[in-house]
Specification:
heterodimer; A: 204 residues; 5-stranded parallel sheet; 4-stranded antiparallel sheet; 8 helices; B: 219 residues
Chain lengths: 204, 219
């Protein structure tokens, strides 16, 4: 479904990586690994369509993502380093607004169910600025529960999460793969996800 | 989606009312400084009133431009908006509209009150308000392009004024011109029609240009 062909990334006059090739089928997970500064985030941003590769091409179901644009964005959920939550909005407002802007409006009860599942029960009406780092991460990740996208691109999703939350997310990833979804993620932790196909990509 | 972005930005403005109030009070103070410094020379005040009010409106609207995208840029919500399957131009239009509701509309409402300080006759006050009502959305729309271009740059605040102020000049000329024409007893509807035309053109082109700039700025 998702295919990268000879991808290269140049930042300033430094070449971060080149000749990256991979091909992901439905139900597969790609874990991008590499030391700090090796271009993991740059690769993920490229796969989202936020930046263009210096060389090579990214194909989604056989078509270049550049020509798909809107249709491609409808199939992707990206959770990056930045939480993508507004400090001044409450937890539930954040979830509902970010889902609506991502193209799938959700009801109040759907949103509070998702937050409950993420262990944020009773905190729905708090502004995000009073939450801890791990709780903010949970708010951001709650989007995975309410989105209906096929491709998840996750940049260090497990950072700042406690053991319980890590288990929860791993289960979420597993379910997504079983449904035939595709996941591309970076993480320094070992992930315990059972899936038919788990690939690793090492950036030098 | 259009409604959601407006709702969101208005909600954020409600939670941070100080941002909105500083812009409004800046406008009030700048406009009030002139009568205080020039003295009670009625004829002179009447002549300079349209120009002063418009320049103050331009500066006040500029003051809040930096916030249009930069807060969303810092917390990553802008990144998410760029990944929205809906049109980014529409989203920018929504943001510019919300910006106008929060910064432009209070100026329009305040202008007739401030105009009294300049001894403007009632019909001139009405023309001034009408011109501002048509012109301030243009300021938010053109400003969105500047804000998008300077996103994430150091010293972006100064740069945005250098980029955007020259583009504001036509609105300034015809906005102030409408009031002057009215006071001189000539027809002013041509001026208002021209500002209306600027508004229509900027509704079509500014969101598109700002959306392109955002994509470049975030790459």
């Amino acid at each position: 479904m998702l295919q990268g062909i000879n991808l290269a990334c140049i930042r300033g006059d430094r070449e971060l990586f080149k000749d990256i090739n991979f091909s992901l089928e439905a139900g597969s997970l790609l874990q991008v690994r590499g030391p700090n500064g090796s271009g993991k985030t740059s690769l993920l941003r490229m796969l989202c369509g936020l930046s263009n590769p210096a060389a090579g091409e990214i194909l989604w179901r056989g078509t270049s993502i550049r020509s798909l644009s809107g249709d491609y964005f409808a199939a992707v959920t990206y959770i990056g380093h930045l939480s993508g939550t507004k400090d001044d909005l409450t937890v539930i407002e954040n979830l509902r607004i970010s889902s609506a802007l991502a193209g799938s409006e959700i009801s109040m009860s759907q949103a509070s169910d998702a937050l409950k599942h993420m262990g944020l029960r009773g905190r729905e009406a708090l502004p995000v600025k009073v939450l801890s780092q791990g709780q903010r991460r949970r708010v951001a990740l709650a989007r995975l529960l309410v989105c209906s996208t096929t491709l998840w691109i996750l940049d260090e999703p497990l950072v700042a999460l406690d053991v319980m939350a890590v288990k929860l997310i791993q289960k979420l990833l597993e379910q997504h793969l079983q449904r035939g979804g595709v996941i591309v993620m970076t993480t320094h932790q070992e992930i315990e996800v059972t899936a038919t196909s788990i690939m690793q990509l090492h950036l030098a | 989606m259009f409604m959601w972005i407006i709702k969101r930005d208005l909600l954020l403005a409600m939670r941070r009312q100080s941002d909105v109030l500083t812009t409004l009070f800046f406008f009030i103070i700048v406009v009030s400084l002139f009568p205080l410094s020039v003295g009670p020379e009625m004829n002179m005040l009447r002549t300079m009133a349209p120009g002063v009010v418009w320049v103050a409106a331009l500066l006040a609207s500029m003051l809040s431009l930096g916030r249009m995208f930069s807060n969303d840029y810092v917390d990553g919500t802008l990144e998410q908006m760029l990944l929205s399957p809906q049109s980014l131009s529409l989203l920018v239009l929504g943001k510019a509209f919300a910006h106008w509701l929060v910064t432009g509309v209070p100026l329009v409402l305040m202008a007739p009150v401030l105009g009294i300080q300049y001894d403007l006759p009632t019909d001139a006050l009405l023309v001034l308000t009408a011109a501002l009502l048509l012109g301030t959305p243009v300021l938010s729309l053109i400003g969105a392009i500047g804000a998008a271009l300077t996103l994430g740059l150091r010293g972006g605040g100064v740069l945005v004024s250098l980029l955007v102020l020259p583009l504001y000049i036509p609105v300034l000329i015809f906005g102030a011109g409408a009031v002057e024409a009215n006071m001189a007893g000539v027809a002013f509807d041509a001026h208002l029609s021209l500002i209306g035309a600027f508004l229509l053109v900027s509704i079509v082109f500014a969101p598109w240009a700002a959306a392109l700039s955002l994509r470049v700025s975030l790459e």
